[in-house]
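To the structural biology subgroup,

Please find below the input and predicted structure for DUF1156 domain-containing protein, which we are adding to the shared reference set this quarter. The sequence is reproduced verbatim from the submission form. If anyone notices a discrepancy with their own records, reply to this email rather than editing the shared folder directly, so we keep one authoritative version.
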Amino acid sequence: MMDKKKLIEAALPLDAVNQTSAREKSIRHGHPSTLHLWWARRPLVAARAVIFAQMVDDPSAHADLRPTKEAQEKERRR
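Predicted structure (tokenized):
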């Protein structure tokens, strides 16, 4: 039995994750993370992106649903 490739192995939008993580980390007020100072707090956006990408199959793993390379790339960007 062949395991399906996960999204984290094929394409993870690092630029978007980095920008959003930096924005989240620079929030000074109005966010629940500012209630208490955690010295080594990691942005929640980065953690969510990694966990999601580990759980979701890569679009190329389902060739019957997306037969063309263009459709697979479009699904990866989504």
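Summary notes: Residues 7-25+41-77 form one domain. The helical segments are 7-10, 14-25, 44-55, 69-77.

Regards,
Lab coordination
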